[in-house]
Design brief:
The complex is a heterodimer of chains A (113) and B (114).
Chain A (H helix, E strand, L loop, with lengths): L3 E4 L2 E5 L4 E7 L6 E7 L5 E8 L4 E4 L2 E6 L4 E6 L8 E8 L7 E3 L3 E6 L1
Parallel strand pairs in A: 2-11
Antiparallel strand pairs in A: 1-3, 3-8, 4-5, 4-9, 6-7, 7-8, 9-10, 9-11
Chain B lengths: L3 E4 L2 E4 L5 E7 L5 E7 L5 E8 L2 E5 L6 E7 L2 E6 L8 E8 L9 E2 L3 E5 L1
Parallel strand pairs in B: 2-11
Antiparallel strand pairs in B: 1-3, 3-8, 4-5, 4-9, 5-6, 7-8, 9-10, 9-11
The chains are: A mainly beta (113), B mainly beta (114).
């Protein structure tokens, strides 16, 4: 049974710092991995999706990497800004495109001006 | 244009009542989902439909009944509401093949059972 964990649970950094959020999953047979952000009281916004055959994806100041063999993904945020404050969720889809997507518990990020 | 839209956004009701939440997506996706986010903010899959066919049905009480009239709509009906049903319910959609199965979420429907 796939389990997804995220470390740390919460993180507070001063503005301008580079930071790394971690995601681990127990079953390496995945179809894809997706990073989301959730602002308080809002829905989830997709940030990056990495297919199982890919190693990383980049979008602006965000870079996500995937190491399937070790069951890990990292989300790197460069030059953090107060607007980056949100909860970041990692989600893993099982072996096929029909399989369910399992979410991690999230990392709550606070960027202090 | 909202890609995945849910109504209502807020729902306050008494125990024992029956309520429905509606979801529509205009992304041309063929798969839709219901997720539940509890008070601890943990997101858990409830149901998934592909082209109107139920493909994922997690261990959810049978008081919860999803219905997909077409592949752009997925509704959730809840009978005999209980206090523990209070949560935020999210609808999501994806395409099984295109866009690598990327998930898109609605804004959520906050259900409060008194």
């Amino acid at each position: 049974k796939q389990e997804v964990t995220q470390i740390p649970a919460a993180l507070s950094v001063p503005e301008g710092e580079n930071l790394v959020l971690n995601c681990s999953f127990t079953d390496s047979a995945i179809y894809n991995l997706q990073w989301f952000r959730q602002d308080p009281g809002k829905g989830l916004t997709s940030l990056l999706l990495i297919q199982s055959s890919q190693r990383e994806q980049t979008s602006g100041r965000l870079n996500a990497s995937l190491d399937k063999s070790s069951g890990r993904s990292t989300l790197y945020i460069a030059a953090s800004q107060p607007g980056d404050s949100a909860t970041y969720l990692c989600a893993v889809r099982g072996k096929t495109s029909y399989d369910k997507v399992i979410f991690g518990p999230g990392t709550s990020l606070s960027v202090i001006p | 244009d909202t890609a995945v839209s849910q109504t209502p956004k807020y729902l306050v009701t008494q125990m024992g009542n029956d309520k429905s939440i509606k979801c529509e997506q205009n992304l041309g996706h063929d798969t839709m989902y219901w997720y539940k986010q509890d008070s601890k903010k943990f997101l858990k899959i409830m149901f998934s439909y592909n082209n109107k066919e139920l493909i994922i049905n997690e261990t959810v009480p049978n008081r919860f009944s999803p219905k997909s009239p077409d592949k752009a709509h997925l509704n959730l009906h809840i009978n005999s509401l209980e206090l523990g049903d209070s949560a935020v319910y999210f609808c999501a959609s994806s395409h099984r093949v295109a866009l690598a199965g990327e998930l898109f979420f609605g804004e959520g429907s906050r259900l409060t059972v008194l």
